[in-house]
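Hi team, as promised in this morning's meeting, here are the two structures we talked about. I've kept the exact order from the run log so nobody has to guess. The first one is mostly here for context; it's the second one we should focus on when we meet again. Sequence first, then the predicted structure tokens.
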Amino acid sequence: MNKFGMLLFSLATASCMGQKEYTSPAGYDLSRPETFNMPVILDEISGITFAGGDSLYAVQDESGTVFHFKPGSKELAATKFGKKGDYEDLAVSNGHMVILRSDGSLFAFPVNETALNEAVSVQEWKKLVPEGEYEALYADPVSGDLYVLCKQCKADKKTSQVTGYLLQWSGSELAVKSAFTLDAATLQENKSKKNTLKPSALARNPKTGEWYVLSSVNKMLLVADPQWKVIGMHALKPSLYAQPEGIAFDKAGNLWISNEKNQAAYGAVLKFARKQ
């Protein structure tokens, strides 16, 4: 090989070595979403969930309002439930729409009140979970159990673990049943400093039972088995995932991820069809 050929080979090799590898969990292609742009009111879209049908429910992190719409439709309904605040995620549990605020406070009102402009039966729980920052909430569709993951909590300081809390209903009241941990020690992108996972959303694959933990800060989708053992990590391409803040599965097992506006022209919801 002549000197010119060797130079081209060296440049190509260096380029390949510098390229980040973007992978996808089994059954999905994270590089090929169907994109639904959001109206301006949802530029700051954070949490998303389904309530059994094909309507998507969402919160944005500035207003105490639950929005719902059918992806692709221009019709958008809104239900006010609280004051302005940093609302991060929502889930359907025990016939209620449950909303998580970043300080760990929880709000709930009957799902049928999403037909109203303002909810009338709102419950609020403060200091149910330890002081910290929270953005990830999931509700089991059968038991109604709620799972809350810390984004930044004192219990996890200087460790690789993420603490979570299992909440159960007792009549009309919520109570913490137990705590659990997710060990993210395998995050080794930058070995020069400690890597910690900062969950921004949580969902469970209805077909496999696996946990999907989304982290906007880490630009990462982490997959764990039903016992919270990490079995996969997938880096998210910044050009597609400017600020991924919400995650959900529909009843067919399709994966949905919401993106706040950030540098993008619109807030958006991305759909990833489940491969058969």
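And here is the second protein, the one for discussion:
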Amino acid sequence: MQLGLSESARATTTEEARFRIGYPNSRPRKSRIIALDAASVLELKSLMDQTWNGAHFLRYVEPKAATRSLKMLSVDAVLEDIEGNRTNLVDEIADADVIVIVTSAGASAEAAEVIGNACFVRNKMTTGLVLNSAGVPPEQLKRTLTTMRPFAAMLVVSTGAEYVSEMLSALRV
């Protein structure tokens, strides 16, 4: 009895190669990476020299009411790029494919609620990255994770600077 090819081996045959798409993804991703606190801003600044696919690195400044009549519903915010130019959260995420929220463990993550609500209303999924350092007590990390959990489809704790870069690369930022 002769053994057949495995699925992996069959997928690499010349016969199956005719079904492969012979060009890279034709539509580049539009990514927004938003830092929620000072430590996260410093982390993102250290990554800006790398080659990214049109990603916008931003800093959360403050919440903004959606309209004058709905002041209690914060689904917009003021953001700032690294050069200090201000923009609205709603404008930034309107055509974004990837939204990544970055904060450090122990920092207040209430801004994640504003960003998460704005993304939810617009059917945008978010990823949360929490920068953890050895000196942060576990209860502070837990508080940050608990605050961010409802607003991030994927929530990752990072223990090293290189991990953030690798995670953004994996998300094709």
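Starting points for discussion:
The beta strands are 31-35, 56-64, 76-81, 86-88, 98-104, 126-131, 154-158.
The mean pLDDT is 83.
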